[in-house]
Write a structure and sequence with these properties.
By secondary structure, the protein is an alpha/beta fold. Helix content is 43%, strand content 14%. It has a six-stranded parallel β-sheet, sandwiched between helices. It has a six-stranded parallel β-sheet with strand order 11-10-9-12-13-14. The structure holds uridine-5'-diphosphate-xylopyranose. Uridine-5'-diphosphate-xylopyranose binds next to α9.
Length: 437
């Protein structure tokens, strides 16, 4: 099939490459000329494992092209809208400027029977509003909401082998003509056994926001338990292992630490609260304010713990922050708890050095006032304290015995509870985890 993908960021670039991998003829479109030039040269404009190899593989087949010209969407039967929905400046709601602009820009190029497929995370009600615009332009065209659940760092695998496909169609019916079109797009995915659910627009939109809210709640739940564990002298890691053995609870997303960040969970729960307020259902989501508050409290808590670890004062202390990305296997620093902690430490007088295997360029753009060092050994040298804030494998693998003589003071704060506390202590380190004795 001929497919256009509008928006080539973390979501769209991966989606375009994966659609070509599934055998379709794909054009990726973005307003950012630099991004398009990179993608056209089969280079990933951001770090995502497997993406560059996939780009090379599919571009060699001639099935994937990139352009800044939206008219290239003409002739495609299916148009995926994959643009961002960031948080509005100074407000909780989602900024729909890009979704609205992409849809409006696409309208002149729609042919009868075309299917516009929204993948961006949007406030409930957006799909039906956009469907009316599409149909006013092209009465036989369809708009489907097909939320994307990919995780950064696993984006290629998650797109090719999703847990489920959700199609939100205007009448919520299996017989909707758009369902057959999307089934054709996802033939390979469906034939490998991926379940698919057909529903209406608002339910499809809510599936995504509800899923992200649940994940955020799970993380904040365990971080709240970490606060209680700290007060009671208990160990939140063992607590998570034990409650996670109950199938109904599950161990995933129960890692206590410095909390969640990134371009999705924080802004999605806020946009969800804002939208519920508009709908008169704000009481239903007041708990998400607490989820957000617990999460933000983690950052302050880590700064306090770092001060404790440094004998009560951060002034002039050389603190090395291991990790800047919001999670490992990504160079994304949007709302990264690690970077926000690094900035707070510096504001409180610490001499901070931040290192990360992939995210330093993005980090320096966002926080130019911080000091960055790409070489881990150099970053660690003569530190008064190490703070592990993003659990990249290379930091998990650090050898406490060989590092003990490299630093000025062997103090480590494990912001992700991933180090072997007993081993680090045995090597002479003052080890602190979060929610652990
Ligand atoms: C999330 C959803 O998982 C994904 O389904 C959706 O499509 C987009 O938002 P992503 O933002 O890529 O994906 O990251 P995710 O793996 O969910 O992690 C989010 C944050 O939570 C990270 O900062 C991570 O470090 C943190 N986290 C995750 C924890 O603190 N503890 C955990 O147990 C799990």
């Amino acid at each position: 099939m001929r497919i256009s993908v509008i928006g080539c960021g973390y979501l769209g670039a991966v989606h375009a490459a994966c659609m070509a991998k599934l055998g379709h003829d794909v054009v990726g479109i973005d307003v950012d000329d630099r991004k398009i030039q990179e993608l056209a040269a089969a280079r990933a404009p951001f770090y995502e494992p497997g993406l560059e190899d996939l780009l090379k593989e599919v571009q060699a087949t001639g099935r994937l092209t990139f352009t800044t010209d939206l008219s290239a969407a003409e002739g495609s039967a299916v148009h995926f809208v994959c643009v961002g929905t960031p948080q509005k400046k100074g407000e909780n709601g989602a900024d729909l400027t890009y979704v609205d602009a992409a849809t409006a820009g696409l309208l002149p190029y729609l042919a009868p029977g075309d299917v516009v497929v929204g993948k961006s995370t949007v406030p409930v009600g957006t799909a039906s509003r956009l469907a009316r615009r599409v149909q006013a332009q092209q009465p036989t065209a369809h708009l489907v909401w097909n939320p994307e659940f990919l995780r950064e760092g696993h984006a290629v695998a998650d797109t090719l082998h999703p847990d489920r496909l959700v199609y939100g169609v205007s009448d919520g019916s299996e017989d909707n003509a758009a369902v057959a079109v999307l089934d054709e797009v996802y033939t390979a995915t469906l034939s490998s056994g991926t379940p698919r659910l057909v529903t209406d627009h608002p339910t499809a939109e809510l599936v995504k926001t509800a899923a992200n809210s649940f994940l955020a709640t799970k993380i904040s739940f365990i971080n709240a338990m970490a606060e209680v564990c700290e007060a009671a002298g208990a160990d939140v890691t063992q607590l998570a292992d034990a409650i996670g053995m109950d199938d109904r609870i599950g161990r995933k997303f129960l890692n206590a630490g410095i909390g969640f960040g990134g371009g999705c969970l924080p802004k999605d729960i806020r946009a969800f609260m804002a939208r519920a307020g508009e709908l008169g259902a704000d009481q239903a989501l007041t708990f998400l304010r607490e989820v957000d508050a617990i999460n933000m409290r983690r950052r302050t808590r880590v700064v306090e713990l770092a001060r404790d670890l440094c004998d009560g004062s951060l002034l002039g202390k050389r603190v090395t922050v291991l990790g800047a990305a919001f999670k490992p296997e990504s160079d994304d620093v949007r709302d990264s708890p690690a970077l926000s902690i690094a900035a707070q430490l510096q504001l409180q007088g610490a001499v901070v050095t931040v290192t990360d295997p992939k995210a330093l360029t993005n980090a320096a753009r966002r926080f130019p006032e911080l000091h960055y060092e790409s070489d881990t050994s150099t970053a660690i040298e003569k530190a008064d304290a190490l703070l592990l804030l993003t659990e990249w494998q290379e930091y998990r693998d650090l050898d406490p015995y060989s590092l003990v003589d490299v630093v000025s003071f062997p103090r480590v704060l494990d912001g992700r509870n991933v180090l072997d506390a007993a081993k680090w202590r045995a090597a002479g380190w003052n080890y602190r985890g979060l929610g652990r004795p």
